[in-house]
Amino acid sequence: MLNWFQALLPKEDNFFRLFDAHAQSLVHGAGALRQMMNGGPATGEWCAKVVAHEEEADEIAREVLFAVRRSFITPFDRSDIRGLTNSLDDTIDQMQKAAKIVTLYEMRDFSPKMRELADIAVECAALTQEAFGLLPAMRKNHERLAILTEQITNLEARSDDLYDAGMKTLYEAHRHDMTGGNTLGFIIGSQLLDHLEKVIDRFEDVANRINGVLVEHL
């Protein structure tokens, strides 16, 4: 009877499987976000794909949090599992917010700085996916994990500079419109830049969560 009951419980390695799936959803979401930034008539399709990947990530997050509640054994502290899951979910939620702005205002043209921020999101997603793949053997892989999280932090610093440059370019492009009282173009563009920059911020949050787990378990 005990063996039968234990077979119904989530296995420890299932958490890592779900983490991998969650990180993969960020890779797909970031890829769709970058395609969205190419603009043109396909923009709406890529917005819809970002939203679809966000919904997939939500399902995975719910499965992880449910597994935490019903598991006797977890690979590490339950609060860390929840924190990692929430930070992953916040990241793709931020991508969805960027797509929402694009959809709401029917944007079809995007600045080079916006595309560069999306490029950084793609880089961060790949680094994040690699990091989660190393977590099952975190003691063995701690040096590589430290490198990956540092790379994400460095990319976040680059995104801050890109955001500032993008805002400056946006202001220059709309300065004459603004003197006439037409601020809509600047407002919409600045909202999108803000969401794109926050996507990278959320990736840094994930990296910080990973570092926290490493500190506790090494």
Automatic annotation (TrEMBL):
Residues 138-165 form a coiled coil. Pfam families: PhoU_div (PF01865). Keywords: Coiled coil. The keyword Coiled coil applies. Gene3D superfamilies: Phosphate transport system protein phou homolog 2, domain 2. Belongs to the UPF0111 family. This is Phosphate transport regulator (Distant homolog of PhoU). It comes from Brevundimonas vancanneytii.
